[in-house]
Amino acid sequence: xxxxxxxxxxxxxxxxxxxxxxxxxxxxxxxxxxxxxxxxxxxxxxxxxxxxxxxxxxxxxxxxxxxxxxxxxxxxxxxxxxxxxxxxxxxxxxxxxxxxxxxxxxxxxxxxxxxxxxxxxxxxxxxxxxxxxxxxxxxxxxxxxxxxxxxxxxxxxxxxxxxxxxxxxxxxxxxxxxxxxxxxxxxxxxxxxxxxxxxxxxxxxxxxxxxxxxxxxxxxxxxxxxxxxxxxxxxxxxxxxxxxxxxxxxxxxxxxxxxxxxxxxxxxxxxxxxxxxxxxxxxxxxxxxxxxxxxxxxxxxxxxxxxxxxxxxxxxxxxxxxxxxxxxxxxxxxxxxxxxxxxxxxxxxxxxxxxxxxxxxxxxxxxxxxxxxx
Length: 374
Hints:
Blueprint: E1 11-15, H1 19-30, E2 34-39, E3 52-55, H2 61-70, E4 73-76, H3 83-89, H4 99-105, H5 108-117, E5 125-128, H6 131-141, E6 145-149, E7 159-162, H7 168-171, E8 180-184, E9 188-198, E10 204-206, E11 210-215, E12 218-224, H8 230-246, E13 251-260, E14 265-271, H9 281-284, H10 289-297, E15 311-317, H11 321-326, E16 335-338, E17 349-356, H12 360-369
């Protein structure tokens, strides 16, 4: 009987050479796979641990074809890649995440329309073509509201919070990038995320619900388990599983959500790949989100996820590197991950720290008292 899963020494192609690709590659190498990465930056974080790098833009069809021909399966580490380019290689190599899922999640209008079509709760929104649309629609959505570009946004880029009428002109500058989405502001009490994995056989597993805190629209800390009641945890997991099933997911999917004071849950965004809020799984769970993703795209059975110990994760941005390095020897309890980026720029994700603790909220207070993250 022929094998329906990848064997060791098979090659996994990764489109995107950032930190998510790097951690995917490390997981793949531990399982005996070879890795080829496509990224325009020489010595990108993923390239440092891969077997080979193809240095080219993500839209380079010749380079994508080369990647496809060298790989037994291809995955991508972020959703801002050209959907048509991905579609162009699907006849050559299997791309489990697929171009259809990519097309939905990389366009906010399509994503919201899809979520509405399967009765997923999300913030009221309007499609914005010009400044007049903002003026007309914000009267019904109310202040504050968030204007977002339909594509390309991450870590708070490509969005503007409109607090009053005077902010409209500044927000309207985003329209130079094309059609936008105007979202009503959800008065949430918590931000949470669920990472769900699914393989081609339809097996699904969820990682523990994570509670997240953002600073300047960039993920700052993640805590597991969350300070949520069991009913809300179950609802969040149910939403993630429903989405994975409807989307015919192969790989992992991160679902970001808002929780209001009344317990209502709104889906904010989807990411069809490993996610910053799931990094805790490397140390805190019996399997990491990256290994689970590789197992899923390789056609292997998934492992039932267990939280071995409560944990907190904090991002290391460029402005935190010197402070972290200065006290590394004082914190043996820190699991420090650096991503191999050469230049520490302000607000650039350089690494993360995970701490296992029976009281992760105490660890967050310790982080704050260190003054590094002020």
